[in-house]
């Protein structure tokens, strides 16, 4: 699985690809310069149950840690995954 990021000053997304096919995305909106809100996670139906959403969230966490950014998980999937994984909660705003 390959994760790619697109980012600008207002919003961005992490996209997952499996065998060069779009498998899912996690989108966010910036809330200032050091915080963003995860507002959507989507996984293509044919990739359900393959860990696409969790891998997207792990990429978000890695990015947030590397760039000293805090995350607000508005998306229900992201919020639930953070709640189940205390080791990821250091990036929460």
Element layout with pairings:
Blueprint: E1 2-7, E2 11-18, E3 21-30, E4 35-43, H1 52-67, E5 70-73, H2 76-84
Parallel strand pairs: 4-5
Antiparallel strand pairs: 1-2, 2-3, 3-4
Structure description:
The protein is an alpha+beta fold and 93 residues long. The chain has one domain: Gcn5-related N-acetyltransferase (GNAT) (Aminopeptidase), CATH 3.40.630.30. Strands 1-2-3-4-5 form a five-stranded mixed beta sheet.
In short:
The protein has 93 residues and is an alpha+beta fold. The protein has two helices and five strands.
CATH topology: Aminopeptidase
Structural class: alpha+beta
Span from first to last CA?
28 Å
Count of individual domains = 1
Order of helices and strands: EEEEHEH
Number of helices: 2
C-alpha-based Rg, rounded: 12 Å
The number of distinct β-strands equals 5
Helix content, binned percent: 25-40%
Looking at CATH, the homologous superfamily is Gcn5-related N-acetyltransferase (GNAT)
CATH class: Alpha Beta
Largest sheet: 5 strands, mixed
Under the CATH scheme, the architecture is: 3-Layer(aba) Sandwich
Mean pLDDT: 97
Low-confidence stretches: none
Percentage beta strand: 35-45%
Per the principal axes of the C-alpha atoms, what is the gross shape? globular
Strand order of the largest sheet: 1-2-3-4-5
Features:
single chain; 93 residues; alpha+beta; Aminopeptidase; 2 helices
């Amino acid at each position: 699985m390959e994760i790619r990021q697109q980012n600008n000053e207002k919003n961005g997304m992490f996209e997952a690809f499996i065998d060069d096919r779009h498998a899912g995305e996690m989108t966010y909106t910036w809330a200032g310069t050091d915080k963003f809100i995860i507002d959507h996670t989507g996984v293509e139906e044919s990739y359900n149950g393959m860990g696409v959403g969790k891998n997207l969230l792990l990429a978000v966490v890695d990015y947030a840690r590397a760039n000293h950014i805090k995350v607000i998980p508005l998306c229900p999937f992201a919020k639930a995954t953070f709640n189940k994984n205390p080791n990821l909660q250091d990036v929460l705003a």
